Amino acid sequence: MELLHKGKAKKIFADSKSKKYVVIEFTDNVSAGNGKKKDIIKGKGNLACDLSEFFFRYLKKKGVDTHFVKRLDGSQMRCTKVEILPLEVVCRNVAAGSFCKRYGIKKGTELASPLIEFFLKEDKLHDPLISEDAAIRLNLASEFEIAFMKSVALSVNYYLTVLFTQVNLTLIDFKLEFGKNSDGAILLADEISGDTIRVWNSKGQSFDKDLYRKDEGDITTAYSFLLEKLNETKPNKVLQREEVLYVSVMPKDGIKNPPGEVTKKALIRLGFGDATEVRMGKIFEIHLSKPITSGLIEQLTLMNLKLLSNPIAEKHNVRMEM
Amino acid sequence: MTIAVIRFPGTNNENDVLRGLSLIPGGDPYLVTNRQGSEALKDADGIVIPGGFSYGDYLRAGAVASVGTIMDGIREIADDGKPVLGICNGFQILAEAGLLPGALLPNRSANFICKWVYLKVSENTVGFTDGMEAAVIRLPIAHAEGNYYCSEEDLVRLQDEERIPFRYCNEDGEVGEEVNPNGALDNIAGIVNEKGNILGMMPHPERASRIVLGSVDGLDILENFVRVTKEA
Fold first, then answer.
1. The complex's ipTM?
2. Searching chain B, which residue's CA lies closest to the CA of residue A307?
3. What's the topology of domain A243-319?
4. What are φ and ψ of residue A10, in 5° steps?
């Protein structure tokens, strides 16, 4: 097989069967601190592949669009070929790792609600935190793609958190990567394993790569434990999370908007004389019982053209937030 | 020969249209509700979509009705070249359905307008206006979204292909901005499709079809519609 890419813990090969796919091999290489600490731990690759397979299958069942296609022999899986977006998406429920150092927060502090952070995938710069606006200005992802990844990351967080709760484990945080397939659809890609998540038991004991980072234990034992626990879970008992999409419809520029004009007059009458123009449109709040996918957005865009807006006089926009 | 008069939830002019058509020999109208579906149109030789407020004008006037269960049947009849007339909300529905070009936007004044207007009939007949060439007629309008709008290319095509049978005008038949009630492009009150078998108009011919109503100018349009349906 032709090697396409060699990462720190995985190798990507061309799939001999189809250009649409690649074969991802999980290696036994373990590293931390951007490669400062490096080791080979026998059996780790296979366990990371097992965990990733479990999570991808589970998330796919819940409706998340992932790159996972099929488990192959050994520590390999066939995946849809994607162009990885150069951003790591981190979702945090409880303060740990770099977040504590950055803000001087005590490890284990619960966050009021899940936090999504983006990091620039650039080894030379040690994968720095990047603001959403900076990522957009640098053309690393569009505003829509950022919102899309945030929405999917929050869905994934829900589905994983509830699953871990079933076996008395707590999902502290995790990292996701996304990629675009040849049709331009954004898929959840890379891996989800002990290498990319933090999981604690009720006593605050880790079952993830932190054990290796801090020399506190054997990660193959921890990953095996995680897998064992996950196999005890009941994925069917995890209810679908409600998602909301917003469609805004506005009169096109240059189209007279009498409802906005009379509203402006009324605002001025009430003393709000600073309004120079008011344009009135509509917002549709659309509730769904499955995670947002590129296919769903495409369908909704079609619905905008067919029903929600009149493209002759109105413009429309799908948004994840109001 | 039968003419199906369509009722959506919120349509409220169906009885006026049924009565107007039944005054005409051979009119033979019958009521079809959206819920009955396309099947109920299999004997129809022509269709009238009357005015009203289908689905409460929610979303946009005519938008929800334009994807109603009966629309496939209406589209089929229109594709067969049989006559279809949309009055007021019926015009809005036909535009939303893409059977006629353009859109009906909120009136320039943002008011609901209910009044008698004069219309200049085009010099070139479109079948629905036979015998009325260049006439000035008087019909009532009653709408909040009658401001006809379309792309510049569409407007040029409508004008070049003489597909604008009705324009708002004054008593003397002069078409001008000052007698434009709602802001419609080129004072457009009604248009026909390329094939000439679909007519959409904002004014109400059925409300001017008997002397007691104050005008019988609309009867000519309904009579033409019946005649065209017979011929189709």
1. 0.83
2. B63
3. Mth169; Chain: A , (3.30.1280)
4. -140, 155
